[in-house]
Amino acid sequence: MQTATQHTAPRVPARPAAVDGRCDAWNDEQQRIADTLKLIAAALEPKRRIVHAGEVIYRAGERFSQLHILNSGFFKLVSMSSDGREQVVGLRLRGDWLGFSAIAQGSYGCDAIALDTAEVWTVRYDALLQACAEHPALMISVHEAMSREMMRDRDSLMAICTLPADARVATFLHYWAQALAMRGLRADQFSLRLTRAEIGNYLGLTLETVSRVLSRLARAELIAFNEKSRRDICIPDFPALAAYVEGRDLRTGLH
Amino acid sequence: MQTATQHTAPRVPARPAAVDGRCDAWNDEQQRIADTLKLIAAALEPKRRIVHAGEVIYRAGERFSQLHILNSGFFKLVSMSSDGREQVVGLRLRGDWLGFSAIAQGSYGCDAIALDTAEVWTVRYDALLQACAEHPALMISVHEAMSREMMRDRDSLMAICTLPADARVATFLHYWAQALAMRGLRADQFSLRLTRAEIGNYLGLTLETVSRVLSRLARAELIAFNEKSRRDICIPDFPALAAYVEGRDLRTGLH
DNA sequence: CGCCAAATTGACTGGTATCAAGCTACGTGG
DNA sequence: CCACGTAGCTTGATACCAGTCAATTTGGCG
Lengths: 255, 255
Known about the structure:
homodimer, alpha+beta, Jelly Rolls, Arc Repressor Mutant, subunit A, 2 domains, 4-stranded antiparallel β-sheet, 8 helices, 11 strands, 44% helix, 19% strand, globular, disordered N terminus, DNA-binding
């Protein structure tokens, strides 16, 4: 079965020793996702399909009747406000659901766009409801997924509200590396798959500011660019990045 | 039964004619909340209690086993990051649930603090799961509540990320007035019940900036202060405020 | 090769934060 | 009753971070 280009290469990525403390959570997370997918496959026979970068799973305004689960790949959620401003409101990876926020309103509130080749599983919402009533484990799993999404949104809200630009970008990279690692993908080197403008949009910054911050972080050796394609980021020292994201008043020249 | 001080007086508040367009949504919302509460009361026999301003329903870190629904009153959710920064991450009114975001993690991620006398209904999560399996309507209602919470968080994220200070505060007031109106409470005059510092914290601004913006909005006559207590806000012309929140390039002297 | 989107970098501007000085309301105790 | 302290709020002066505008470089692709 075809899967995402970049994300398949190393099954067990090289991980810096200092992240070992995370290995439990990391394996747990992998297990959790696998269990959830198995549960869905067993109870619902989801429609599976491959989509390619740029393809749209749903658009804002479309009638809601299905939910989607990512088996692989990488999506962005783009919301458009009444006055025409666009905003990237979320990013989704393997194990994440797409469409929860449409349940209440009956129609999607944003576009879901693939940034990569991805495998999407689709289930009808009414079928899911029925399956949940019959399979308690599935209902728990769905609630947990929604709860996790809320928690994540809340964290990013907090980060974006309170942190200066350097810390926002660093937090973003840190979160992203962690999310990849938890899914068994390599986290010490990866492609952002987003333009500076999209990152900035997501973080509430301009593309110039994102560019400048990335340069500063590189100068401080918290990240490095892959020669060829500055969209590929290396994280040579994950603990250092983590420390910067927490403390932020360390030796680095970044106040 | 004792209920919130301020929020009970007018059963059907005076509403400026121009908001009539909203009356459908407004009555729908009231009906929806009433239906949900009835559903919960019927299926779960929730524990009901009155809490007073300042009381805490749960604290970050506590083990999760219960969810709460507000029958009346007004809560803030306060999250504390590892490095000690505090942040108001949400506000809750009648019909809102408290605790969803704790499901995934098994423990609460923030404090829930009453800002007013409130009536809280509490249900065990395991009981809710079981009831959901037996009552499809209840499960739908729970999913909708979670979905609505996601949508709201997303909207506020968008507002906070992309808007300048004036618009943030105006959006906040507009949302708040609407939320009160939808619950049948008077929206043309209300108490914020939050200090400038708390509002600023919630909106990613300093208390000084909030104060200045409120003064500017008052000078532009989009809001007015109740003589005595500048924490009581009047909205003399709701459509004007709504127009400002949307367009923002109107006649007002606020660029 | 030449075009175009993306990214980088610099100079300048402006919106918020910060620092600081009062003001107001309210409760406490003399 | 008034003096006093305190918490919340307002307003002004200044500093600085990030946005804006602009010039240039880089990389991808027909």
